């Protein structure tokens, strides 16, 4: 770990700081996963080795639970799965994801000990589990999980005390890291990365964490690369400067961020952005019409109305009733227009959902309008190198391309590519896809500038020769929280 070291951060406990000067996009460290599992809800849709979403997966012939892309992935996963496989067969049913992850961690500890590489800076025993801070209602759930864990844990394996099992569940509760699919678009699992647990929070961080799912396509496992997280610098970081990441999405108001951090991670955020309530005024701002500000009473009224509509919209979205989602969003945006500012977070949420669902329903031109508004608002609030901004800009660029607006599409895809080169790096699958998209839109833009009529004629002909397909189903936008609380 030549780029980082552990130190006592004032008011925060242990933290990590830079031992070398680094620049935006540099990787400060990469860390393999100590143990990981697929979420219960994705167990039948995601490879349990590489976390790739697949239409058809091959089921483990022994436990009939674990599923893989192919035999290559199955062989690669066997070392981690073999104890679980026997336990599921013996137990007769599959426990929940928390119990499965705790068991995998225990098996890894029994086999390899608390340190799995020379690069690991801290043992699991030394990490804080916050058991004493857990609310009574969560403590009851924890006791149920421990009871079920003891039923699941094989009698032939080394037995552990209730305190040591509780410690592992506490670590999962406050330090379990969200693992995304191979495209980085949706959280599909949870894992534990000891070094990452040392990186403290800041609402305006100087680093970001990206999951690299590794490469498991080679037939021989000796050519595979491990699943790992990468801590990447967002700005220039000087020697001795503390490394920080954002545990929660900055788009929330400072009081909401502080509440979430206290509830989920058991600390009071004292960062400058929370202390000074930076940008809270913009996030709740009213519009200006012809140079005149909308009265505060009107802004408050539409803000409260928007909150109620967001609840209705979320319910319709969960039910996959996308026409109802569009209806609710359109009704709400009409009320918000010329009342809420373009940085108001409730208006941004409506624009984001509306653009995504309209794209799914193939109303591309209307979707492009809202995606453009969304990105313009995001750019006034987020750090210029924020991963959420990069992903939103990418989505907006693709939407404009689908709408045939090639000039705006290429411009947005180039902006997204510049951000993702910093946050994800050049080898991440999503960056590679974006690079291919950037080259394609650049070629189309040259054609467009040479002759608009020929460009649109060729585009229409190409689209007619392809069967009409639905876009991928809308999912929750991005991965807003690094760590997962049950």
Automatic annotation (TrEMBL):
Please name the top-level EC class of this enzyme: transferase
Q: Does the keyword Zinc apply?
A: yes
What is the E.C. number? 2.1.1.354
Highest taxon above the source species? Eukaryota
Query: Which Gene3D superfamilies does the entry mention?
Result: 1.10.220.160, 1.25.40.970, 6.10.140.2220, SET domain, Tetratricopeptide repeat domain
Q: Which reaction does it catalyse?
A: L-lysyl(4)-[histone H3] + 3 S-adenosyl-L-methionine = N(6),N(6),N(6)-trimethyl-L-lysyl(4)-[histone H3] + 3 S-adenosyl-L-homocysteine + 3 H(+)
SMART domains with a match to the protein in the record? SET
Keywords linked to the UniProt accession: Metal-binding, Methyltransferase, S-adenosyl-L-methionine, Transferase, Zinc, Zinc-finger
Q: Which residues form the SET domain?
A: 2-248
The record's Gene Ontology cellular component field reads: M band; nucleus
Q: Name one GO biological process term.
A: cardiac muscle myosin thick filament assembly
State any single GO MF term. histone H3K4 trimethyltransferase activity
Where is each MYND-type domain found? 47-85
State the protein's name.
[histone H3]-lysine(4) N-trimethyltransferase
Record the organism: Ictalurus punctatus (Channel catfish)
């Amino acid at each position: 770990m030549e780029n980082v070291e552990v130190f006592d951060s004032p008011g925060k406990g242990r933290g990590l700081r830079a031992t070398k000067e680094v620049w935006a996009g540099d990787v400060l460290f990469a860390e393999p996963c100590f143990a990981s599992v697929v979420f219960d809800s994705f167990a039948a849709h995601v490879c349990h080795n590489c976390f790739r979403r697949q239409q058809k997966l091959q089921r483990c012939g022994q436990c009939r639970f674990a599923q893989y892309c192919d035999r290559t992935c199955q062989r690669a996963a066997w070392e981690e799965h073999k104890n679980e496989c026997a336990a599921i067969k013996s137990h007769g049913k599959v426990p929940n994801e928390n119990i499965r992850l705790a068991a995998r961690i225990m098996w890894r500890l029994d086999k390899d000990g608390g340190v799995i590489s020379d690069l690991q800076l801290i043992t699991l025993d030394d990490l804080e589990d916050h058991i004493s801070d857990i609310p009574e209602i969560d403590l009851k759930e924890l006791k149920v999980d421990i009871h079920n864990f003891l039923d699941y844990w094989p009698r032939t394996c080394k037995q552990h005390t209730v305190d040591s099992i509780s410690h592992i569940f506490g670590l999962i509760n406050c330090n379990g890291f969200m693992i995304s699919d191979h495209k980085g678009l949706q959280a599909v699992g949870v894992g534990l990365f000891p070094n990452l647990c040392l990186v403290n929070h800041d609402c305006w961080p100087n680093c970001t964490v990206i999951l690299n799912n590794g490469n498991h396509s080679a037939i021989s496992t000796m050519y595979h690369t491990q699943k790992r997280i990468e801590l990447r610098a967002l700005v220039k970081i000087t020697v001795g400067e503390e490394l920080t990441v954002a545990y929660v999405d900055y788009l929330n108001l400072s009081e909401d961020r502080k509440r979430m951090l206290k509830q989920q991670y058991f600390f009071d955020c004292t960062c400058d952005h929370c202390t000074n309530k930076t940008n809270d005024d913009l996030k709740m701002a009213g519009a200006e019409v012809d140079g005149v500000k909308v009265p505060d009473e009107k802004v408050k009224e539409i803000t409260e109305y928007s909150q109620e509509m967001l609840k209705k919209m979320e319910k319709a979205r969960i039910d996959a009733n996308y026409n109802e989602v569009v209806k609710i969003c359109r009704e709400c945006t009409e009320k918000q227009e010329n009342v809420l500012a373009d940085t108001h977070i409730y208006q941004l949420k409506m624009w984001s959902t509306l653009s995504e669902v309209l794209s799914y329903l193939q109303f591309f031109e209307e979707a492009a309008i809202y995606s453009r508004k969304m990105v313009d608002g995001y750019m006034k609030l987020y750090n210029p190198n924020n991963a959420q901004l990069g992903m939103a800009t990418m989505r907006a660029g693709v939407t404009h391309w689908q709408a045939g607006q090639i000039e705006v599409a290429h411009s947005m895809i180039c902006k997204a590519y510049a951000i993702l080169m910093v946050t994800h790096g050049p080898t991440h699958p999503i960056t590679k896809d974006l690079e291919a998209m950037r080259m394609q839109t650049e070629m189309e833009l040259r054609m467009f500038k040479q002759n608009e009529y020929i460009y649109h004629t060729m585009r229409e002909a190409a689209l007619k020769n392809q069967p009409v397909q639905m876009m991928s189903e809308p999912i929750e936008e991005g991965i807003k929280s690094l760590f997962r609380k049950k």
